[in-house]
Amino acid sequence: AGLSVKQVQKLASERSPQKCTDFIHQISFYPPNYLVSVNEVSKDNRTYARLWGRAEKGKCVEVQAPFVRGWRLSMLAGLALDKGIIASMVVEGSFNHDLFVQFLREDLLPMMNPYPAPCSVIIIENARIHHSKEVLDLVEEFGKSFTLF
What we know:
Pfam families: DDE_3 (PF13358). By secondary structure, the chain is an alpha/beta fold.
């Protein structure tokens, strides 16, 4: 009756439409070249596993794929509009809070400018490893950047 099978899209239950609106409003005051976006990507044995497939009606779609994540590489990078990637760090495994702080201290913050200037505002996603007084103190210690979460 008008229904079809679709892939489920997972949305974070912690997501707040009001906070998203506030963030968009707040960030609109900065020139685009002031912004440096920080994000993590990773690759493991399941990265390219198919989620969709085709089969004859009434038959299942089957594919052999690893169930075990196996070896994982993760990369954290700072991306500036006019300059591209200005800092990056690759680790075996996943990033944790200490590695994130190390990336800020050794790689990203030295490549940024004092606020207000191009490459002076860090945009960091709302992951738990990014939230700490240590992160805010580090940014302040460098005296270079304003941080948005």
